[in-house]
Amino acid sequence: MMKEEKGNIEQMSERLFHYLRKRESSASQEAEDEVWSKISEQIDKKKHIPVYRWLIPVTAVAAASLLFVFWLNNQAYDTIHSADVQEFVSAANTPEKHIELITATGTKIKVDEKATVAYAQDGSLLIDEKKIAPRQSTGEGEEEHPMNQIIVPMGKHIKLQLSDGSQLDINSGTKVVYPQKFKKEYREIFVEGEIFIDVTHKESNIPFIVKTSLFTVNVLGTAFNVKAYKEDTKAEVVLVRGKVEVKDKKEQNYTLMPNELIALNEGTYTDKKKVNALDYISWIDGILTLNNQALSIVLEQLHRYYGKEIIYDTGIETMPMHGKLDLNEGLQKVLSTIAITAPVTIEEKNNIYYVHMRKEN
């Protein structure tokens, strides 16, 4: 990292931390929403996913299990430095081949996807049980809560333990921004992509907040999945356990019970139905469960999971898919499995996979 770039990151980090401290006493929800929106915009600018003229846009596959989803109230706040937040986030480019953890001082650490990454209660970072960095501070008091960021590129996945003991499974193509150590009043992280999180019950009286560019999840202690890829206009919330209240962007409230799913389009409620919630979180065990998903959606998931380009013919995108795919196998074998049940053929050239309509003899 160039000295000037690192200096800019440190400066933006410090200014962001000052804002986060002020938030404890005076921040409004509208201002906070704006800040996280800017973070989301900057993350999105750093993505470079190939787009082909003859590809059909794919939509989000279901997310899995939430406790309480809500949209923020509109209030005013004059002291937010949203430009500072933009600069802070834009300093983090998405690596192409490795997982990267960025500390509060701007230090970038390459992390193996099989590594154990955890934060101690005091905010110290441990990788494979070895202390990598003590709790960092801008040096102005114990109430500061410096933010870290973990970036998981296409084709990679990792587990992360937060300082409160909550466990995250982070899917490919995902960024998570979080404090080294949580505040006493609430716990808050930002997600761009997909995570499954098991929130610790040790601090069940302290709200846990997950922010995305489209909605916010407020939790008191449960397990849930958040899927919020910005390129997907559709989203789904599936409850595994507990109780969920979803407020869409039209300010309408919807309650979810276990094994129920709510579908949203651009943040607006469209449907609610009964499902097997475990099917929607099987990805954390390397299994992709298909329940009538369109082939285009399945191929987009495989593109993200393996980090490989997949190009398919028009006319096959709506083919319904059923069954289970073992993601622990290579992409070629997974695609070959699809070709057994669907009328398609698979071709690989220069590390790009092509899915063609099977020709009649």
Automatic annotation (TrEMBL):
Residue spans crossing the bilayer: 51-72
Gene Ontology terms for molecular function: sigma factor antagonist activity
Origin species: Bacteroides caccae CL03T12C61
All copies of domain Protein FecR C-terminal, residue ranges: 288-354
Keywords: Membrane, Transmembrane, Transmembrane helix
Domain FecR protein: from-to ranges: 151-245
InterPro entries per UniProt: FecR, FecR_C, Ferrdict_sens_TM
Full protein name: FecR protein domain-containing protein
